[in-house]
Amino acid sequence: GNRTFSMIKPDAVKDGHSGSILKMIEGAGFRIVAIKLTYLSAERAGEFYAVHTGKPFYDSLKSIMSESPIIALILEKENAVEDFRKLIGATNPANADAGTIRKLFAKSLERNAVHGSDSDENAQIEGSFFFSALEKF
Ligand code: ATP
Fold first, then answer.
1. Which of 6, 109, 118, 125 for a ligand 1 pocket mutation test, highest count of atoms within 8 Å of Cβ?
2. Which of 4, 53, 75, 112 minimizes the number of CB atoms within 10 Å of its CB?
3. The pTM is what?
4. Does ligand 1 have an atom closer than 6 angstroms to the CB of 67?
5. Is 86 annotated as a binding residue?
6. 77 is an annotated ligand-binding site residue
7. CA nearest to 92, candidates 81, 104, 80, 103
């Protein structure tokens, strides 16, 4: 697959890291296909992370993801899903490699700066959660 979906999470946007993160994304060879500054209500955040329903961190995740605006992105590159997850680093920034986006900008496991889809199928589903077909040139 050559596309993935990403989100710059509320803390990273609020703290003024959007430009630096987008620069790293483009610098790594990803083309921005679609981009939108928007906002998730707690309910919409819960839908986005429905796979985590019932887990101990689910309510906290919904709350953190709806604190302030996010930037939604569809990104294009050969091997996009796998290469993007390498660029962002491990979910827990304590385990993220040096030079990854999460190592540089994550504050904690729950406030880990960015999201990246974990499969081609989820990239498609998550992209369509935020963008209409007309917005995905
Ligand atoms: P993302 O989906 O945001 O790219 P991921 O695929 O690396 O992250 P998931 O397992 O899908 O990780 O978890 C989604 C998000 O929920 C994580 O990015 C993290 O912010 C939060 N999270 C995951 N596991 C925990 C946990 N054990 N405690 C607290 N928060 C967690």
1. 109
2. 53
3. 0.96
4. no
5. no
6. no
7. 103
Structure tokens at 36: 């939108």
pLDDT tens, position by position, for the chain (137 residues)?
799 999 999 999 999 999 999 999 999 999 999 999 999 999 999 999 999 999 999 999 999 999 999 999 999 999 999 999 999 999 999 999 999 999 999 999 999 999 999 999 999 999 999 999 888 87
Rg of the chain over all Cα atoms, to the nearest angstrom: 14
46 lines ligand 1 (CB under 6 A): no
Structural domain spans, the chain: 3-131
DSSP state of 67: S
User: What architecture is domain 3-131?
Assistant: 2-Layer Sandwich (3.30)
Answer whether 91 contacts ligand 1 (Cβ < 6 A): yes
Question: What is the distance in A from the centroid of ligand 1 to the CA of 112?
Answer: 8
